[in-house]
Amino acid sequence: MQNQFHAPNNQYPAQTGNQGYSAPNYQEAPSNELNNYIKVNDAKIRVMQNQISTLKNDFQSSTTKQSNELKSKLMATNNKIDQSQNKIENMFTSLINHLAPPSTLGGLPGKTVVNPKGELKAITTGSGKAIDGPPGPIPPPFILQQDYQGYKLLRKYEKILDPSQRRRFEKK
Hints:
Elements: H1 32-99, E1 122-124, E2 130-132, H2 143-157, H3 163-169
Antiparallel strand pairs: 1-2
Organism: Artemisia annua
Protein name: Reverse transcriptase domain-containing protein
Region (Disordered): 1-22
């Protein structure tokens, strides 16, 4: 007989691990200790959920309150701006009325003293100081320049002028 190597003829079945032992399958009810632990944790979770809900509601109400306060402050500021704008428009109207040429040509706004001869000999200022007049005749008023300046003012502030004031500045 020759020295040959032959594979075993499966005389012994292959074994994988220890087949003789199986872990016991305990299907017992959880112990009282485990039940108590679960109940305590469930209670803690509910408390945390309530705290989260409370914080969420507090945050929402605080945000809403701050938003409403901000809106009211913005509205108050807007009203102040509108009032300031109205004051400025009134000031411009007053300024234009003050600078507007009188309805009669050649007159001055305010109280004037009539000079029937048309001669200028002296000017008395508001403080009472007398100033000698010009050496020659009084030049006629330069109406076109007044009208042109008034027309420019009209274009700039025409929104705040009433119709009677606009007629004063219209081109002739």
